[in-house]
Amino acid sequence: MKLKTLEITGFKSFAERTKIEFMPGITGVIGPNGSGKSNIIEAIRWVMGEQSAKGLRGDKMADVIFGGTTQRAPLNRAEVAITFDNTDHYLHSEYSEITITRRLYRNGDSNYQINGVNVRLKDVYELFMDSGLGRESFSIISQGRVESIFSEKPIERRSIIEDVAGVYKYKQNKDKAKKELVDVHDNLTRVADILYELQ
Ligand code: ATP
Question: Is 0.95 topped by the overall pTM?
Fold first, then answer.
């Protein structure tokens, strides 16, 4: 699985539609301070489902929409599309190329698409679950995060290791199964009560 392209329109400093093609090998982004290097990384995190405005250096999510400059009026919509080459089917999908798109309008409307089909945020999360990618993954490490990993409590560090090791999904399944067991137990108690009343 390889990152192929990133298309950014109306997201933060990228008012114009900007397409970045990732070639084989290492890609470096260079530019003066404030030119938008971090905004590119944030666009990647955002399209993968980032929900924290603060994590994107804003107060509210609408802050990611291009807010205008002295030369250019603000825009009403932010859109980011990321495309992966998935010919090795590393991501659990039948498609050999996967494009995820996220849009947000100033009135709060938003949507996600996978290969042009409207999906829920949950579907985007599930696509990346245990892939080592995704909004909370360690494939994207922002400034200051390295330090925070070392200073985190052991229990928090353990969850990071579990995520990297790919056991997070199974923990989630286990929690779901536990909840279902509690529900079944409640239902059985209720059945026992009814039987008792009928006797
Ligand atoms: P540095 O090298 O200092 O870390 P950088 O190249 O990573 O800088 P960014 O932090 O990505 O730069 O970009 C900051 C710029 O993005 C600022 O000029 C800021 O005004 C602009 N910006 C952020 N949000 C918006 C927005 N919603 N609308 C327009 N411009 C925005």
Answer: no
